[in-house]
Amino acid sequence: MRKRLGMITPSSNSVLEPVTSAMLADVSGITAHFARFRVTEIALDAAALSQFDASVMLPAADLLADARVDAIAWNGTSASWLGIGRDRALCEAITARTNVPATTSTLACIDAARALGARRVGLVSPYTDDVQRRIADVWAEEGVAPYAERHLGLRDNFSFGEVAPATITDMIRAVAAEGADAIVILCTNLDGAALAATLERELDIAVLDSVAVTLWRTLGLAGGDVTALAQWGRIFQTMPNIR
Questions:
Q1: Which residues fall within 8 angstroms of residue 125, CB to CB, at 6 or more apart?
Q2: Helices (DSSP H) in 41-126: which residue ranges?
Q3: CA–CA separation, 207 vs 231, rounded Å?
Q4: What does the DSSP 8-state code read for residue 51?
Q5: Rounded distance, CA 144 to CA 114, Å?
Q6: Helix axes 196-203, 165-177, angle to 10 degrees
Q7: How far is CA 25 from the centre of its chain?
Q8: Across the strands, what pairs with 205?
Q9: Alpha carbon 125 to chain centroid distance?
Q10: Given CB 3.0 to 4.6 Å as the disulfide criterion, which of 64, 89, 122, 153 pairs with 180?
């Protein structure tokens, strides 16, 4: 049966839509549908944090529900610095008003690391020093303390989508060299999904791109076959833990 997947998308993100569509291009019966709300920068000041208030995100979920999607994802990683409870509450609110199961990119990344039994998780991101530190604290509270990391010190969300794949590759190799047994590309506006499978073979570790694992978890939540996307990385050989 056809599966429709709804993706709540940051307005300045130029990566997740084309990447998700490319991943599904050769898979029959699964389509992705997108609704945007305004996000322009990632920082810890009040104005930047207020971009992710549920009151501005839930209308996007309402519009996706009009397309009768089978699952909805907040395709962004904001709970990684705001706190995981924010995403859990958001998912509950989405389902309460749309009757559609919901997930998020941060929940997907943590679930993927756990599903693969990773013990030394590395984080690669475009974020600033203070955001990266906050992420480490939030993830540690979930029992997934980052083992190694690299970040780019960027704040403007649009600029994340302009980062060259070669730069992302260099960061992944550097974190792998420090002994990580899984690496999360933590940002849905970093163009890393197409790198994952090749780097997994080169480095013999899991490479978990945020866009890819959001699709993995959303498709699983919708009752779809995640193994149809096995060419995109190891995680697609494992079913997500949906609860």
A1: 131, 132, 135, 149, 150, 151, 152, 185, 186, 187, 190
A2: 46-50, 54-66, 79-82, 84-98, 105-115
A3: 13
A4: T
A5: 8
A6: 30
A7: 19
A8: none
A9: 11
A10: 122
Q: Calculate mean pLDDT across residues 27-52.
A: 96
Q: What is the CA 83 to chain-centroid distance, rounded?
A: 15
Q: What is the pLDDT of residues 66-107, one digit of tens each?
A: 999 999 999 999 999 999 999 999 999 999 999 999 999 999
> What mean pLDDT is reported for the chain?
96
DSSP 3-state of 6? strand
Tell me: the pLDDT tens digits for 190-235? 999 999 999 999 999 999 999 999 999 999 999 999 999 999 999 9
Q: Which residues of 201-226 are buried (b: 16+ CB within 10 A; e: fewer)?
A: eebebbbbbbbbbbbbbbbbbbebeb
Per-residue pLDDT band for 21 (boundaries 50, 70, 90) equals: very high
Cβ within 8 Å of residue 177, ≥6 positions away: none
CB 20 within 8 A of CB 49: no
Kindly state the tokens that stand for 175.
């974190």
Q: Do 17 and 188 meet the contact criterion of CB atoms below 8 Å apart?
A: no
CA distances from 91 to 73, 124, 141, 144, 161 (A): 8, 25, 19, 21, 26
Q: Taking the CB of residue 38, how many other CB atoms lie within 10 A of it?
A: 9
DSSP state of 237: G
pTM: 0.96
Angle at 149 between CA 117 and CA 154, to 5 degrees: 130
CB atoms within 10 A of CB 66: 11
Q: Name the one residue in this structure whose structure tokens are 């756990």.
A: 114
